[in-house]
């Protein structure tokens, strides 16, 4: 019974990690006033790039940074189009997702079904061998711990650092921030690059750890759930952290219910569960007394062109 509990919790942590990485990156982007709907595409490009570099080099330590760089490079395309060329952010983000789906399928065509050794788990002598606590706290791979550490770092950055306060000011009122000398466009560029790198890391976790192989479209909508998590968390890192683990639990619950299905329902019905939960949660928090707690950045999605 205890072993089953530990296994389920560990699986929930693994399912939540790509969501947490991508959602934390998108949170920073949106706090800067930019809406990038291309998370799904950036995750896929990060996943295939990290996988390809790992296969070619034999070292995941090279594949993981490559995935982050690939995600950031994809986000740079979005930033140039929306921040410099003033393209519509919603349309460009959707196009970025479609582009990422197609490009990743092309890049990964020769890798379909090819396995790779999963990322090694942390092992601390004495601590990792403790009953229950050991495997729960000290039995995950590096990206799991990195996801939590980056969430803590982002929470501190946004609340306590000068640069974080500037980023929040840009997201609340780009015109006011510009009027007192803050480089609005530069801040938004950096936020987009960070968001892209985080999405790339989320994709790398999928292809190198969660499912250590490449499959076309392997994100399976996780990029959209990450976008929803930012709203669910009211643009606050700690709530996004809790939401990621909640939705990771929903995903695993769906798998267990599907495995124990004795009522003859098609498996596709159970596969819809995480996405139905996403819609249900967003509907609830967008209505009634919860709506006032969303606290979306005032300049979110609004273009800004600095006056000459």
TrEMBL record:
Keyword Iron (UniProt): no
Task: State the UniProt keywords alphabetically.
Answer: Cell membrane, Membrane, Transmembrane, Transmembrane helix
Give the UniProt subcellular location, in the record's own words. Answer: Cell membrane
InterPro entries assigned to the protein according to its UniProt record, in alphabetical order:
ABC_transp_permease
Q: Which Pfam families match?
A: BPD_transp_2
Q: What is its main location?
A: membrane
Domain of life according to the entry = Bacteria
What is the designated name of this protein? ABC transporter permease
Q: Which organism is it from?
A: Chelatococcus albus
């Amino acid at each position: 019974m205890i072993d089953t509990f530990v296994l389920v919790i560990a699986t929930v942590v693994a399912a939540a990690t790509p969501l947490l990485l991508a959602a934390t990156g998108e949170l920073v982007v949106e706090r800067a006033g930019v809406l990038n709907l291309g998370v799904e595409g950036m995750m896929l490009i990060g996943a295939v790039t990290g996988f390809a570099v790992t296969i070619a080099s034999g070292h995941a330590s090279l594949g993981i940074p490559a995935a982050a760089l690939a995600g950031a490079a994809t986000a740079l395309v979005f930033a140039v189009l929306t921040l410099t060329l003033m393209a519509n952010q919603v349309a460009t983000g959707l196009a970025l997702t479609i582009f990422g789906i197609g490009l990743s399928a092309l890049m990964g065509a020769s890798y379909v079904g090819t396995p790779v050794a999963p990322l090694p788990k942390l092992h601390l002598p004495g601590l990792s061998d403790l009953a229950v606590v050991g495997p729960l706290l000290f039995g995950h791979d590096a990206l799991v711990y990195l996801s939590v550490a980056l969430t803590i770092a982002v929470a501190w950055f946004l609340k306590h650092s000068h640069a974080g306060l500037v980023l929040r000011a840009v997201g609340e009122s780009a015109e006011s921030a510009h009027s007192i000398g803050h480089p609005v466009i530069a801040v938004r560029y950096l936020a987009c690059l960070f968001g892209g790198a985080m999405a790339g890391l989320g994709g790398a976790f999928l292809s190198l750890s969660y499912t250590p192989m490449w499959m076309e479209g392997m994100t399976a909508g996780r990029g959209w759930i990450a976008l929803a998590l930012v709203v669910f968390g009211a643009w606050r890192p700690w709530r996004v952290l809790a939401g990621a683990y909640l939705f990771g639990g929903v995903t695993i619950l769906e798998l267990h219910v599907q495995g124990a299905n004795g009522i003859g329902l098609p498996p596709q019905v159970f596969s819809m569960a995480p996405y139905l939960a996403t819609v249900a949660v967003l509907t609830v928090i967008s209505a009634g007394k919860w709506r006032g707690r969303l606290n979306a950045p005032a300049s979110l999605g609004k273009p800004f062109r600095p006056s000459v």
